[in-house]
Amino acid sequence: MNIPVKDNVSWVGKIDWELRKFHGNELSTHRGSTYNSYLIKEEKIALIDTVWGPFAKEFVRNLTREIDLEKIDYVIANHGETDHSGALPELMKQIPNTPIYCTSNAVKSLKGQYHEDWDFQVVKTGDRLNLGKKDLVFIEAPMLHWPDSMFCYLTGDNILFSNDAFGEHYASEFMFNDLVDQSELISEAMKYYANILTPFSALVEKKIKEVLTLNLPVDVICTSHGVIWRDNPKQIIETYLKWAKSYKENQITILYDTMWNGTRVMAEQIAEGIVHADKTVTVKLINVGQRDKNDAITEIFKSKAILVGSPTINKGILTAIAALLEELRGLGFKEKKAAAFGCYGWSGESVHLINDHLKAAGFSMVHDGLKVLWNPDDAGRKACFEYGEMLTKKF
Ligand code: FEO
Fold this sequence. Notes:
By secondary structure, the protein is of the alpha/beta class. The protein is built from 12 helices and 23 strands. The longest helix is centred in the last third of the chain and has 17 residues, at 378-394.
């Protein structure tokens, strides 16, 4: 499939309608994804990125319908991760001497994965590749989100090829931001940012400001996943700047798991207390054992504060909560408040353990936590309700 983007630039990627898990099983993709590859046919011909390995043969077959592969002068690898480079071995079998332009770190990641000694041409920020009347300008973007990542910019057409940045895992036959459901688009873009880019927020802000100081007009942003931003592309840049600054809404999210409903009852009573104390705040309850982990993280991203609850089991916490806390440690959310809760029958370590994990993950703990013995009775329920009311003032 070929989708014209602008003048001599077209999308030649793959829409992966069926994808439901990405990064192994780490990231849910409820709406599939796309692997965006772009073909630029100026006096010189450049191919930007490829697609994930399972679609390599299909990609190369389709590409041969667009262009005699021998006529491709340059391959650009903006990022070595296999969802963008996976078709390189299949492609390079056909054109083994075509140079691949990439960062020095991408040479490492590409060689490390494919063990091929292709003609790598290392580029740095500001380097230009002339395509005739237009140039490709390279901009290194380390840690957005790999050390090998880079953007490139096509002069004349004013297109920023941003690779993973500004993307979404969102399959649509309408490949442009103005043609898709706007609420689906923003929620997928937010989920992508929350789950993938949160650890690099400081770098996101710095890189965007660096690109803005170059004063390059940007008419179109061609990402490597999801839609092409052609209608007011600045909107996603501005949204990223907002998200990068310790983003939060007036939301409190209660995340818990439960064995025999004691901790669930606590969560619900705490929620009632919060709602009683503040009618303006959005309160969301998430049973982490039942709900999608990445959707839960997106709700945490939106929250000014979270409560995390688990009963005590074997002097520890339930595994769904442990997994969530480990994920939070890696993501490193900033400027969010937190508190813990949980019921217990014997030793009651869970609240203390959750506190330690949340502190290590960078949350500001506003209380030592609430423990309730066995299933909450009327007094226990009242204590939870009052805990919610009290925390609302501290959040
Ligand atoms: Fe879409 Fe970092 O790969």
